[in-house]
Amino acid sequence: MKDNTIVDPWRCINPARLMDIFIELVQIDSPSYNEREIASRLTKHLIELGLSVEFQQYGKSFNLIGRKHGKLRGVAPVMLSSHMDTVESTKGLKSIREGGVVKTDGGTILGADDKSGIAEILEALYVLKEQGLPHGDIEVVLTSAEERGLIGAQNLNFDSLKSRIALVLDCSGGIGRVVLAAPTHDIYEMHITGRAAHAGIEPERGTSAIKAAANIIAAVPDGRIDPNTTANIGTIQGGTATNIVPKEVTITGEIRSHDADAMQRTKNAIFDTARRLAKKNQVKIEIRENRQYHGFHISEADEFVGLIKNVCEDLLITPEFISYGGGSDANIYNRNGIKSLVISSGMQMPHTTDEYIKEEDLSKAALMLLGIIKALAADSKM
Ligand SMILES: [Zn+2]
């Protein structure tokens, strides 16, 4: 029987090549601020793919930008982004392919966060080139030190980017997950100072900073404050020896919220409680706070979201629009005027040695990227 199926060139993923790229990338150790080696490998791919490459240097590292000019005019340029660093070193990584899944032997994390995203972007670009597909301009932004607080993204030269829409492949879970909202994230440090004294000879002269800190920690609101807001005290440090009434304690914590008012209310509640109890416990308190990043919220009615929904349906992928508790480079991009959606790269259980990815999800994510590039090429309004 003759096969009359017409192969859609936009779906001509090469799963073996995609897997090779993914394995090649996870073999390179690239903890935050150590992105040199992976970047030089990525540069080779980008140049082979016909992109111009720019290193944007900042303090401790750099970001890698690839630019591909499209033949189509009047098409919205799109930015595709992933981060090059992994949350920790993967030195000695042994990857295992088994039952349609890639994982490690348990000795290290896999680093699919975020190398799966990078591999998927590269595969989509290989298909574009191989099939000679028409598209608009594409900017590939590969950041560094994302895991240290979005450091690379914060140091991007936004004037050098012309895209006003971006896809950030940095969400875990099934393909089709799209993050429409992420919270604002603030961190704080409370420094408590009491009075030291010999604990055996004259404890009466001392004021315990640990006791005051314990009272404060027990009293401040934490955990899930409301559906949009969370708070946590993450570290406590202080005291010097068992025979000294402790003079100093430092507490660090964080607050995240999708709602600016709730953020402020929670912060006031925590800080006011801490100040009140410090006074009651006769210790000094100094509070410093720092905004890590601003949150974002994109409506499900947004046209870029609509376009992605259509692409998913076309590929028989069920879109799942979610609000996320964590931050990503998209928080920084959105703040800088680039409408950025975080989509799943298929990574599962990131930041653990159980991290894995399904082989088919690598292909599905690359297909989704191609689908979106195709849809943008057909949509002159975006
Ligand atoms: Zn990540």
Gross morphology is elongated
Measured as a percent range, the helix fraction is 25-40%
Output the helix-strand order: HHEEEEEHEHEEEEHEEEEHEEHEHEEEH
Average pLDDT, all residues: 96
Q: What is the CATH superfamily classification of the largest domain?
A: Zn peptidases
Q: Which structural class should the secondary elements be placed in?
A: alpha+beta
Number of domains: 2
For the terminal residues, how far apart are their CA atoms?
A: 44 Å
Bound molecules: zinc ion
Question: What's the Cα radius of gyration?
Answer: 24 Å
For the biggest sheet, the summary is: 9 strands, mixed
- Portion of residues in beta strands equals 25-35%
What is the CATH architecture annotation of the largest domain? 3-Layer(aba) Sandwich
Q: What's a quick, concise take on this entry?
A:
With 382 residues, the protein is of the alpha+beta class.
SSE blueprint and pairings:
Blueprint (H helix, E strand, L loop, with lengths): L14 H12 L9 H13 L3 E7 L2 E8 L9 E6 L11 E4 L2 E4 L7 H20 L6 E6 L7 H4 L10 E7 L5 E6 L1 E10 L3 E2 L10 H11 L3 E4 L2 E10 L5 E2 L2 E10 L2 H21 L3 E10 L2 E2 L5 H12 L5 E4 L5 H7 L3 E6 L2 E2 L7 E3 H20 L4
Parallel strand pairs: 3-6, 3-7, 7-18, 8-17
Antiparallel strand pairs: 1-2, 2-6, 4-5, 5-20, 8-16, 8-18, 9-14, 9-15, 10-13, 11-12, 12-14, 19-20
The chain binds zinc ion.
